[in-house]
Amino acid sequence: MLYIRADGNAEIGMGHVMRCLSVAEAAAELDRMHPPVFITADEGCCSMIQDRGFQVIVLDTDYRDMMCELSQLEMLFSGTGTHQHPGLPAAKEGENVLLVDSYQVSCEYYLALRKFVKAACFEDMGEAYTVDLLINYNIYAPDLIKKYKNPDSESREMDRYPRQLLLGAQYMPLRKAFQKSAGYTVSNKVTDVIITTGGSDPYFATAAFADALISDRTIAEQGIHLHLISGPFNRFADELKRKYQNQCSSRNTSSSNAPMVTITVHENVKDMRSLLLQSDVVISAAGSTIYEVSSLGVPMIVFYFAENQRQGAEALEKLTDIVNAGCFAKNGEAVADKVREALKQCINDKSYRELLNRQETGLIDGRGARRVAEYLIHLAEETCRDERSGYHACSV
């Protein structure tokens, strides 16, 4: 069986759960084992997982203290725990794989975990965890290979490094909606612009960007329609709606001093793909959304909140002509100004947007979730638990 350990809440957003759901769906479609089962610290993301048809085991622990859950996991995987669910085959030691997706882990956690289960993990920062399979799907991941590999090939301290590596954007587990060809066409005029900050918006960046764009004469005269995406853990959701509700129908007013920028606040978006395909430019935090936007080829402007997003934003800036506006958490006003200027470039230069379209679609092929699922299933099917195969480094 494949188990998946991931959490989602207002503090950490939903990125961990979303990418794991993509892998889970791909594994279920391969139909070579029982459907994957999720394990979470609390009930914060249970409904989202269950709505996608997967069972969830809730540990009732603190997601920030993962060492405290090890005893429960050991009982679960030895078949003696209290979390056995109806319809789940009994867990047998040595026959399961646990995919972990968390920034709260440590090498000590994985060393303990691998005593009773094969461990795989998603990793973003270049940390060499002690797992059977490490996956870093980011476009900058191949540059981190030296951090993941044992510098001393003769050393027996293999437990300090991952057994196998999957590196590069070909392992990006896009949601199913983004795994098919888009057929996106760059329009002659920029009319619809999306602003998205991911599952949460810890610094109310959405409002800062919207205000910066509204106040610009060039953008206002363009007649832009701003689409503000309010994620499931956005604690500013109500304030966002109150702040902009009077601009939702401003195009229908005859007042000469009425704003020409109209705004729609989107909550509980069920079909993000369609919304993105109807847009001309996307302003996005540098999380998993940048890969979804790239798969469609919608011209993009990026920014970031935290260190784990910085590398993705900087890699996009290096590999393409996408503008990286910088870290909003450090200097929100400067980032908002840079986003405004980048949007004006998109408005004034269709050829620039066409260039972004070509560059973005060349980054992602949409088959990453299936590739990751195949490797996880192969890991589960290995008959020799103590086998030490050589490193397998894959890159773009």
Task: Tell me briefly what this model is.
This protein is of the alpha/beta class and 396 residues long.
**Helix coverage percent of residues?**
25-40%
CATH topology of the largest domain, which one? Rossmann fold
Q: Report, as a whole number of angstroms, the end-to-end distance.
A: 29 Å
Strand content: 15-25%
Number of helices: 14
Radius of gyration: 22 Å
Number of domains as seen in the coordinates: 2
Overall pLDDT confidence: 88
Which residues sit in consecutive blocks of at least 5 with pLDDT less than 50? 249-255, 383-396
Per DSSP E runs of 2 or more residues, the count of β-strands stands at 13
Descriptive account of the structure:
The chain is globular and about 65 Å long. It folds into 2 domains: 2-176 and 367-381, Rossmann fold, CATH 3.40.50; 180-361, Rossmann fold (3-Layer(aba) Sandwich). By secondary structure, it is α/β, with parallel strands linked by helices. The protein contains 14 helices and 13 strands. Helix 6 packs across helix 12 and helix 10 (289-296) packs across helix 13. It has helices at residues 15-30, 46-51, 70-78, 107-113, 145-148, 205-214, 217-222, 237-244, 272-277, 289-296, 307-319, 332-348, 350-361, 368-381; strands at 2-6, 37-40, 56-58, 97-101, 118-122, 133-136, 164-167, 192-196, 225-230, 262-267, 281-285, 300-304, 323-327.
